[in-house]
């Protein structure tokens, strides 16, 4: 990994708090979370896991994806609202969107522009150099 990606890995497991949900060998807790992703397109009745369980606490909750090969899986989020990993990092850095039942794990982080680039560099390192693999 590049030195920038190594610094991004330290952010991922530290200040950025990504590893709260993206952990283990597949970088997922395999749990459902509401992270405040905006509807796309707007007003489409995005109810998430609640559709299955009927439980209010599952409203707009989606399963944490694994991050292996993440550079090859754009667009991002369950609805494809973010086109780049930079967009995803910006979203998490601002603490997601307002949602009264958003996960308490999601809050503003306060990354510098350099830290955001390093975090993206780390996630890019989780991909394959051979896209046919």
TrEMBL record:
Using the record's annotation, list all stretches that form the Cytochrome c domain.
Answer: 3-127
Q: Give the matching SUPFAM superfamilies.
A: Cytochrome c
**GO terms of molecular function:** cytochrome-c peroxidase activity; electron transfer activity; heme binding; metal ion binding
Q: Which keywords does this Swiss-Prot/TrEMBL entry list?
A: Heme, Iron, Metal-binding, Oxidoreductase, Signal
Q: Which InterPro entries match?
A: Cyt_c-like_dom (IPR009056), Cyt_c-like_dom_sf (IPR036909), Cytochrome_c_Peroxidase/MauG (IPR051395)
Give the matching PANTHER family: BLL6722 PROTEIN, CYTOCHROME C PEROXIDASE-RELATED
What is the name listed in the Swiss-Prot or TrEMBL entry for this protein?
A: Cytochrome c domain-containing protein
Species of origin reads: Candidatus Nitrohelix vancouverensis
């Amino acid at each position: 990994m590049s030195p920038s990606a190594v610094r991004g890995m330290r952010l991922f497991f530290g200040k950025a708090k990504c590893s709260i949900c993206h952990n283990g060998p597949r970088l997922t807790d395999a749990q459902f979370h509401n992270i405040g992703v905006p509807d796309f397109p707007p007003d489409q009745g995005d109810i998430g896991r609640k559709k299955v369980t009927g439980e209010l606490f599952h409203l707009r909750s989606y399963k944490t994806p694994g991050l292996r090969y993440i550079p090859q899986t754009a667009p991002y989020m369950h609805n494809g609202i973010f086109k780049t990993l930079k967009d995803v990092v910006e979203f998490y850095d601002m603490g997601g969107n307002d949602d009264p039942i958003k996960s308490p794990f999601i809050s503003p982080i306060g990354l510098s522009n350099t830290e955001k680039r390093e975090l993206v560099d780390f996630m890019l390192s989780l991909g394959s150099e051979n896209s046919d693999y």
